[in-house]
Amino acid sequence: IRYKDGEGWHDAKVMPRGPLTLDPSAAVLHYAQEIFEGMKAFRTEDNGIAIFRPDANARRFRSSAERMAMPELPESLFIRAVDELVKADRDWVPSGENASLYIRPFMFANDAFLGVKPASEYLFLVIAAPVGAYFSSGAVTVWVSETYTRAAPGGTGAAKCGGNYAASLLAQAEAKAQGCDQVVFLDAVEHRYIEEMGGMNIFFVFDDGSISTPGLTGTILPGITRDSILTIAREKGMTVREEAYSIDQWLADAKSGRLTETFACGTAAAVSPIGAVRTKSGGEVKISGGTGPGPVTSALRESLIGTQRGRVADTYNWVHRVC
Ligand code: PMP
């Protein structure tokens, strides 16, 4: 779908995937005016196809657009575009517990000029591809970056824009070089408080049965899985806190046993246990023995995935049927 100032959104079409033609001075190539979303379509128990909370993705897309001085794409148009693509690709939606069709809606500035100002022409596209489980199995090992931060106060941390990810690649490469699966970012001011991972939010489980996750301070991505887990945990009667939690406290609580589980959550990873944390200064600390998911992680994971697949009652109307 194309956008032009004065004309609005127009020219919507579903077409076979192929290369795009861009002018070398297209604004996105110079000033990174680009935002995206990540979502999944699943086969349900009755062999239909459903998408999880696309309205939440549409709302986050709208707020990312606002932060990046891009035009508003109406939520209904976002959802219709995704629905049309999934219907066209329905035979590519795999079955199986961990398989899904990953959907990537994105928007970028494509008018040709070199001035530093918001563009007046944009393209909104949706592409999709079948995917399996994000992490192969067992528990994830994470690396806490003491060198790089992801987002500063007042910056673009809460927006899902390409630039945030460009800035995180070196930290993610550092984590891989340390033999870890994912990077954990600390806050940019004090370098103390845990924010989120390269592509996931993070939750902590304590021995009193409560859970906590860093609050939405404007520097982390408001994950839709994070929001769903908070809602499910509250429904289960758990004590839930959104609060700042420092790296020192995390390591101390893991050693003392006050912290019993930690898990990562996001569209790609669903809910995945974290089994070990590595830091430059502190070496490796195991969490709940470093093995598979603990009981709280497993229960929350089953509630989330069960809702997505139609096994668990969809109390909040989160499951959007495409066909
Ligand atoms: N944080 C970051 C940096 C991410 O890229 C993602 C994935 N979109 C998340 C958190 C989790 O968000 P969601 O649950 O909406 O996928």
Automatic annotation (TrEMBL):
<dbReference type="GO" id="GO:0009099">
    <property type="term" value="P:L-valine biosynthetic process"/>
</dbReference>
<protein>
    <recommendedName>
        <fullName>Branched-chain-amino-acid aminotransferase</fullName>
        <ecNumber>2.6.1.42</ecNumber>
    </recommendedName>
</protein>
<keyword id="KW-0032">Aminotransferase</keyword>
<dbReference type="GO" id="GO:0009098">
    <property type="term" value="P:L-leucine biosynthetic process"/>
</dbReference>
<feature type="modified residue" description="N6-(pyridoxal phosphate)lysine">
    <location>
        <position position="160"/>
    </location>
</feature>
<dbReference type="GO" id="GO:0009097">
    <property type="term" value="P:isoleucine biosynthetic process"/>
</dbReference>
<comment type="function">
    <text>Acts on leucine, isoleucine and valine.</text>
</comment>
<dbReference type="InterPro" id="IPR001544">
    <property type="entry name" value="Aminotrans_IV"/>
</dbReference>
<comment type="pathway">
    <text>Amino-acid biosynthesis; L-isoleucine biosynthesis; L-isoleucine from 2-oxobutanoate: step 4/4.</text>
</comment>
<dbReference type="GO" id="GO:0052656">
    <property type="term" value="F:L-isoleucine-2-oxoglutarate transaminase activity"/>
</dbReference>
<dbReference type="InterPro" id="IPR033939">
    <property type="entry name" value="BCAT_family"/>
</dbReference>
<keyword id="KW-0808">Transferase</keyword>
<keyword id="KW-0028">Amino-acid biosynthesis</keyword>
<dbReference type="InterPro" id="IPR043132">
    <property type="entry name" value="BCAT-like_C"/>
</dbReference>
<keyword id="KW-0663">Pyridoxal phosphate</keyword>
<dbReference type="GO" id="GO:0052654">
    <property type="term" value="F:L-leucine-2-oxoglutarate transaminase activity"/>
</dbReference>
<dbReference type="InterPro" id="IPR018300">
    <property type="entry name" value="Aminotrans_IV_CS"/>
</dbReference>
<dbReference type="InterPro" id="IPR043131">
    <property type="entry name" value="BCAT-like_N"/>
</dbReference>
<dbReference type="GO" id="GO:0052655">
    <property type="term" value="F:L-valine-2-oxoglutarate transaminase activity"/>
</dbReference>
<dbReference type="Pfam" id="PF01063">
    <property type="entry name" value="Aminotran_4"/>
</dbReference>
<comment type="pathway">
    <text>Amino-acid biosynthesis; L-leucine biosynthesis; L-leucine from 3-methyl-2-oxobutanoate: step 4/4.</text>
</comment>
<keyword id="KW-0100">Branched-chain amino acid biosynthesis</keyword>
<dbReference type="InterPro" id="IPR005786">
    <property type="entry name" value="B_amino_transII"/>
</dbReference>
<comment type="similarity">
    <text>Belongs to the class-IV pyridoxal-phosphate-dependent aminotransferase family.</text>
</comment>
<dbReference type="InterPro" id="IPR036038">
    <property type="entry name" value="Aminotransferase-like"/>
</dbReference>
